[in-house]
Design brief:
Structural class: mainly alpha
Strand content: under 5%
Number of strands: 0
Order of helices and strands: HHHH
Oligomer: single chain
Number of domains: 1
Shape: globular
Radius of gyration: 15 Å
Number of helices: 4
Length: 79
């Protein structure tokens, strides 16, 4: 099977998993469901322009990273 066909299969698996819950999930949950890496899922979401409801997946910044930075007082936060 060609690389192109594998990517289409992976895209379909991600779409099916996310759409089955109304896109109310995280990339990590999708990765666990379909057997791909989280970064692979994020790449597919970004390439296809698909948005998840429960996750901010800007490149390199996950929800946990943002919360940890805000609580730590670093990252340009001034009081």
């Amino acid at each position: 099977m060609s690389r192109y066909k594998y990517s289409k299969v992976n895209e379909f698996m991600v779409w099916r998993a996310a759409s089955s819950v109304g896109w109310d999930c995280t990339a990590s949950e999708i990765a666990s469901e379909v057997g791909l890496s989280e970064s692979g899922v994020l790449n597919i979401l970004k390439r296809k322009g698909w948005k998840l409801k429960r996750e901010d997946y800007r490149e390199g910044v996950g929800r946990w990273d943002v919360c940890a930075l805000m609580k730590s007082g670093v990252g340009g936060r001034h009081e």
